[in-house]
Amino acid sequence: MDARRAVVIGAGIGGLAAALRLAADGRAVTVVERAAGPGGKMRAVSVGDSRFDAGPTVFTMRWVFERLFEAAGLALDDHVRLRPATTLARHAWQDGATLDLFADRQRSAEAIGAFAGAREARNYLRFCDDSAAVFRLLKDSFLCQPRPNLGRLVRAFGRAGFASVGRLQPFGTLWRALSRQFDDPRLQQLFGRYATYCGSSPFEAPATLMLVAHVEQDGVWYVEGGMHVLAGGLAALIEQQGGTLRYQSQVDEIVIERGRVAGVRLQDGEHLPADAVIMNGDCAALAAGLLGQAVRSAVAPRPRTTRSLSAVTWLLEARASGFPLLRHNVFFSSDYAREFRELFRQHRLPGEPTVYVCAQDRGDEPKTGAGDAERLFCLVNAPAVGDRGGPEKAEIEACENQTFSLLRRCGLAIERDPDRSVVTTPQDFHRLFPATGGALYGRVSHGWKASLQRPGCRTAIPGLYLAGGSVHPAPGVPMATLSGLMAAESLVADRASIRRFRRAATSGGT
Ligand SMILES: Cc1cc2nc3c(=O)[nH]c(=O)nc-3n(C[C@H](O)[C@H](O)[C@H](O)COP(=O)(O)OP(=O)(O)OC[C@H]3O[C@@H](n4cnc5c(N)ncnc54)[C@H](O)[C@@H]3O)c2cc1C
Q1: What is the Å distance from ligand 1's center to 8 Cα?
Q2: Quick check: CB of 442 below 6 Å from ligand 1?
Q3: H or E stretch including 114?
Q4: Which tens digit of pLDDT belongs to each residue from 109-156?
Q5: Coarse DSSP helix, strand, coil percentages of the chain, rounded to the nearest 5 percent
Q6: Which domains does the chain have, with CATH numbers?
């Protein structure tokens, strides 16, 4: 067996990041992916004549990708073309009100002042400071650590001064924090929506999730060609550095011999020997036994009640009119509390969902000129019940009606053509991402302890590592990338210490 061979299970962004780091380190690395191409959730889908981003659309935390490329001896700008967005998103309510948030926070404050009054503009600037403070506190002590560590977190909070941290009330819910920050319920709703970036409810997620507001404030970029281009580019770089990618290959077993990883067995029976395996698929698959009995105990099982949100998405090649869409648009439901009760308590699609619309051919300005068909990606949150036959066809159809009539009430008319649309449901997401029920963000982030319960990148099984949005530090493209980087670096560090130990043992013996 090649003692330096590693297998990465899954070509999601976390798996690609890990593989690039390992290949750049001179390791023989093979990425095994059951889909036909790289990207995982960051996948492209063809509809009509167009190629869509069917997963993530918002690119943030550029520094994570700079770090990844640097670690591989490369420069991000040489390989990925990024253009900063000046408008972060356009938000709309059913009474016709709209509010844009901008990369320039002063400009956002002015927009909020015009929308909700000068006091709310001041509240917004204070909220920006608070969310930046939370991010600064968590960045090195938590996000950039290979596993969650309460002690380190407490020390970081202590250094910052408990009085200042106490004011942020990080252990209360995000909703409570927002209710204290803002008087206008629409602003509470707008910033509460950031909890859904982790597949969670703002009414149950901790206030620390306000850091997502800072992450967006810190910069949103357009990736030229679409987000899936990033996955394709990383895959090409892995191959250039000597790595191998095998698509349409499923790992059915992680082989353990004498208590440590010895390779993987593919669905067709082929054995790939390896001394290390990085699991990038949702780690719930390990506990569910989908990768063999020997690794079942590597992570704690994830009860259904702790699953994050799934989604229903529509990819539409369609004409849009009546509303000045930008790239990123959010159309809000009239009762947010009810929406999340339905999702998390009743496990059903909301009667009136909040809708995200990504107009993938647009940028910071509304399109001018008569409406040709364009690429529209619409998303509503859904319960992760895709492994239990839910939501059923009739419920999806009812949700579709509600979704597009809410958009009409906000002024947006979309002329849909069933031949030029693709719907993806929690059942589809469950098929794509095994053992999840369609949950897209791993374990739900409800309660302040939830983030501490995500597994770190090392497991108790020597040679088995975890990477991706289902493990520490969090879901989302940059966080999954960070986790892939940390998994690869932990693997490299562990191999180096084994070599040191062996050398010491040998020289001690002679
Ligand atoms: C609709 C949608 C919208 C989103 N929007 C955003 C956004 O705007 N911004 C953002 O930052 N994040 C967003 N996210 C979240 C983000 O996409 C994910 O957190 C991130 O891409 C997850 O990456 P990952 O490394 O966990 O791998 P995943 O994308 O989960 O990929 C894992 C891969 O492992 C493969 N696999 C699993 N088991 C096996 C096996 N046994 N053998 C072989 N292969 C296997 C799967 O096929 C899959 O390709 C969105 C997600 C979705 C679905």
Answers
A1: 14
A2: no
A3: helix 105-116
A4: 999 999 999 999 999 999 999 999 999 999 999 999 999 998 888 888
A5: 45, 20, 35
A6: 5-42+56-82+225-302+447-505 (3.50.50.60), 104-217 (no CATH), 309-432 (no CATH)
